[in-house]
Known about the structure:
The complex is a heterodimer of chains A (276) and B (230).
Chain A: H1 3-26, H2 37-53, H3 57-73, H4 78-97, E1 110-113, E2 119-121, H5 122-148, H6 151-160, H7 165-195, H8 202-233, H9 250-268
Helix pairs in contact in A: 1-7, 2-5, 2-6, 3-5, 4-5
Chain B: H1 10-33, H2 39-53, E1 58-59, E2 65-66, H3 71-78, H4 80-98, H5 106-130, H6 135-164, H7 179-211, H8 217-220
Antiparallel strand pairs in B: 1-2
Helix pairs in contact in B: 1-4, 1-5, 2-4, 3-4, 3-5, 3-6, 4-5, 5-6, 6-7
Amino acid sequence: MSNFIEKTVLGIQSTFEDMFASDEIANKKGLMQSLDPRVRLLSIILLIVIANLGNSLYYMAIMLVYSLILAVLSKIPMKSYIARISAVSIVFTGIVLIPSLFNVVRPGKPLIYITGSLYITKGGALSALIFIMRSFVSLSFIYILTLSTKWIEILKALRYFKLPKVFSATLDISLRYITLFLDVASNMFLARKSRSVGKSKGKSERKFVASSMGNLLIKSEQLSDDVYNAMISRGYKGEYKTINNFKISRSDIIWIIFNVSLFMIFFLLKGGKLWI
Amino acid sequence: MHIPDGYLSPATCAVMGAAMVPVLATATKKVNDTFDKKDVPTMAIGSAFAFTIMMFNVPIPGGTTAHAVGATLLAIALGPWGASISLTIALLIQSLFFGDGGILALGANSFNMAFLAPFAGYGVYALLQKLKVGKVISSAIGAYIGINAAALATAIELGLQPVLFHAADGRALYFPYGLSQSIPAMMIAHLTVAGLVEAVITGLVVYYLMRAGEGNILYKFSYRLRGEAK
């Protein structure tokens, strides 16, 4: 069984693809791309909060349509986007939710009878549907942000919100070294694959994974020394400064006004009952 | 164990986020007190390390694979406070850049995996070290306890949802399974497979480091972050 190697290498590969894809999509001229990264980050977080507050089927349907329109307007490749979100929010969450449909797990009014005493409840089905939609909407907002924004812009936006220095600096450096580590790790696994013939025992495979981690830890230690020395030689004195040039443009203002009025209407519709 | 968005109610997320604030504030203070300019790159590389090893697939009997979290390993190397900052950053990167674990659930996820796991794991490791148990065994047992503490907390957070948040007709609004269902489901998986994977991998990493003559890496990384004089 060498498939743990393939799984790991492919996993790392797809991470690199994600990084590349987000850079490419971020360069397109779409709706999200026209907004200031700070506005983008904050609106996505607020949109997720708003989506998670709601609990009615109508409301979730509106949020679902909203997120899909936003994705289309932001020029996000819809096929892979929907496939990825569905994998987590529909397949994974769906499996988790299957038992909750039945009356034996949560009692409720019958909807579909399986056998005489076992049936799917109305409440269970409705809850599960809303749950899946909510999970889909939340995840799709995150993907819209990561795909339409370069990582470096998200970092800059985070920095603007004044995280403690230890965090923002750590986050900054860490994101850069993840790329390096993933490359090193992927090479370690590929090297092992090219050396192995036939089947290997699970025990020796686990030993290999652990020693790769140990090796990576040793490399990390040397690397943090090198990074520190490089920082010192560039004049690092324990303070971490960055250049930020953000500008709020007209499209940001239109976006903010549009969303504020949209959600005001939502919350007032049906006497404020639409979303519950 | 990464809780996605939509599973926990926003109120729970807010509470868990609020619970993480004093933890991170104390961690920042601890790190700042003993602050050495070198600690920022060390913690940054630590969190890149944590991110990377979470992507390693570990083969388990039965032909499938699992992955380790490495919280206890990081706590042994960086000290629990440094590890909690590093792991929080790794979780933030996973949720914000890869959609792995929710953004609203970040508070809950970091409470479980970046606070409970490294502290429980490190506590057990340190205790066993005092009892003169070998490093490999101590780290494996620590990792086992650490990951199970995190799993139990996750199960409790999820299991409280239907108790606290339900519609007038009793329909669950968020995660639908109560404590009596979520705790056994999570704990059976973690007490057996996931816990053992974490324990075996952590123990083997420490074993490898000692064999490679790099056992002192577990100290020299972080004697300051851990509050021990050199």
